[in-house]
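Run log, item B.
One chain of 568 residues. Sequence copied directly from the ordering sheet:
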Amino acid sequence: MQDAILAMDRFGSYLIGIGTNESGSNRTNQFLSDVSISQPIAARIPRLSLKFYGIPSPSILTKNEIIPFQPSVRNTVTSPLILSIPFLLESHSKSTESRCISDPASLLGNSQSSSPAAEIPIHVLLSDDGALGVAFLLQSSSFDGWDGSDRGRTLNHSRTFSFSPSIQEKDVLGKIVIFPTPLMMTFNSNMESKHPHHSCLLTASLHCSNLRIAGFSAHTTRNLLWSTSLVPVTKASQNIIKQNRGTGDHDITPLCDGFRRVLSAYILFNDEDDGYRITWITNANISNDEGDLVHQHSSPLSHKPQCNILQNPDENAWEKCFSEADTGRIHHGESGNCFGPEISYERYLRVDALLNDILHRRQFFLFKEKSVPNESLKGRMMMPEFFYNLVSVSNELQVTIAIVFSNLAASCHTSKKSPPSLGVVVMVSLWDQSYNELKWVQHPSCRGEAALKGWCHELAMNWRMRGCGVGIFCVDKTKLLPTHQNWAGEIHECNIDEDLDDDINEPLWENHVSQLRSGGRNLILPPKHISMSSLYTSADMVSNQAVNNAIPVKRIISRKSPIELIYG
């Protein structure tokens, strides 16, 4: 095995590794001739793949299983390769391949001899049910690495409003891959095959290349994947539930005509520096027509925007890639029987348009250009420098976002009493684009891009910790001082359940609150770091940070199983 093992899935069933692929698979070649496929499978080996290795158990070793476990000379057991998902492939033909089949040099590593797994930062989100995965891969921060072809997709949203400064010179380009896991195989009742040992030959993954991925610089990436049971209904069904729609503002377009209630679906958010690309994902082998048809019944929020803050994203952004399940080799012919996810619906939430509407509606004097010395700009609205973070997504598709921005009046020195920066926590209804301003805050000394970004992270974490009741917020509110409401504890990203109970251990945190009350200005360290698994339960996060930084990993554990992988 030449792969780097990154983690174990939460159920202790698979090891998750990443690395290059071997030249072939004897087991695959053995049964390829028995499978009727109209087009031959191309011998394209991925440059980088994510791999799932089955973990043997004592009960499995005594049975005649689909994939036999081979004992080694050391009386140990070799974990079989169950599933391989292609992430990156080299370009050989610029004229015949689609953009998801070939990747630019900036994503393939610096040399042919080196592995992209050791050079490219990768974050993988695994859904809480273990059936879906989403990978974020970073490439060069400029377009210099592109080979000049038009296979890569460049996002060019119409920018009616000023955009966040983080998009300038520090924009992070990359690729997103949505893929099935081995557990998704068990969810597909229609994938039975005449070959009992292999119910499905091909997998389908979704690739979206050359887009901005700002989530790497946020307080976490776990908040980008959420479970849902509501999938938007397309226009084909609008006549069924048209009578249930409200008679709101004609200029504001509802998200959809209604929703289909399904057993399992997912919502993916990708921060593209001026807003979020919101993608609904379902199982491709489950018909969208299944499930009860429902209409949105929740009441609109307080404010209606003057223009659409939900827009249509770029068309044809996602491409399906069919590959062999156990080798990751790309299949260019007809897909035949395969399993994998599909995109059911997609919209783009413009946070810059939302902030512009808030400022325009409030007509703050400090955001008008009359406070700017240049006479030619007076009377116009200008956008401040701003940053934002996704806090939460409710079952009713109400999205909570923390936004912080600079005070233009303070930066122009027109008011010495004006705070240098302000922030607002906003709840947005994806159904009708209405929103509520949940809380306004100000910072007495926050100036500059780095300080604003750090404050935005703290505000988002504070709001999420309060909502989840972790840390000092699990203590009785009567025991907290007003200054404690701004508390945001340190966090860790480990996928473990060992310390989750301590995140809501009231006696533990009550003792810490007592120390804070009596400690004055002395630095009082919290009893523990808050686990991100307590704050965002819809996904586990796996990264190759240890591989990038050459950090030895001696122990890999599972959240829900006592199985451990120990090196040394």
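Observations after the first pass:
- The radius of gyration is 25 Å.
- DSSP finds eleven helices and 25 strands in the chain.
Flagged for discussion on Thursday.
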